Amino acid sequence: MPESKVRLWEFAERPTRSSSGIDAVAILALLRSETGKFPPSTIIIEQFRAPVERYVVELPAGLISEGETPEETAIRELEEETGFKARGVIQTSPLLVCDPGMTNANMKLVTVDVLFPENLEMPEQKLDPGEFIQARIVEIAKLSAELKEYERKVGDF
């Protein structure tokens, strides 16, 4: 790197990275009906995040435990945070760097399939002590509008 581009940086470093070199996963759950009883949907969560001192909307996510694959983490975390059980993994993204100007954190986006024989029902969450997560089902066709409405409600950071 040229000397003119070198400068001091203040940043946070995640100390929990597993030997896989991957910190975490975010989960895009595709909720589908076998019989067409409901439109394709997904799940978003709302939880308090201390760095921004407010509740934020995000995809379900979680840290990868030692010896666990991103796909195993995604299936486990989806069930813990939302109660939904994935039937399988559809796709895993390449490694994504979350906020390279502030942290070394990285993740993979894992898309999972959640199939329902009939009605879409919200299962019971399996939250860890100290987790306060509100899960919401949103039709995929309405996801953008839902996120814009949430942004309008909470305002600027």
As a percent range, the share of strand residues is 25-35%
Q: Could you give a short account of the major beta sheet? A: 5 strands, mixed
Please count the helical segments. Answer: 2
Low-confidence stretches: none
Shape assignment: globular
Can you tell me the CATH architecture? Answer: Alpha-Beta Complex
Which structural class do the helices and strands define? Answer: alpha+beta
Task: Kindly report the name of the CATH homologous superfamily.
Answer: Nucleoside Triphosphate Pyrophosphohydrolase
Tell me what you see in this structure.
With 157 residues, the protein is α+β, with helices and mostly antiparallel strands. The chain has one domain (17-119, 128-142): Alpha-Beta Complex (Nucleoside Triphosphate Pyrophosphohydrolase). The protein contains two helices and eight strands; from the N terminus they run ββββαββββα. The strands form two sheets. Strands 1, 4, 5, 6 and 7 form a five-stranded mixed β-sheet that branches. A three-stranded antiparallel β-sheet has the order 3-2-8, covered by helices on one side. A hairpin with a 4-residue loop joins strand 2 and strand 3. The protein starts with 23 loop residues before the first strand and ends with a helix. The mean pLDDT is 90. It comes from Pycnoporus cinnabarinus (Cinnabar-red polypore). Belongs to the Nudix hydrolase family. Keywords: Hydrolase. InterPro entries: Nudix_hydrolase, NUDIX_hydrolase-like_dom_sf, NUDIX_hydrolase_CS, NUDIX_hydrolase_dom. One of its GO terms (molecular function) is ADP-ribose diphosphatase activity.
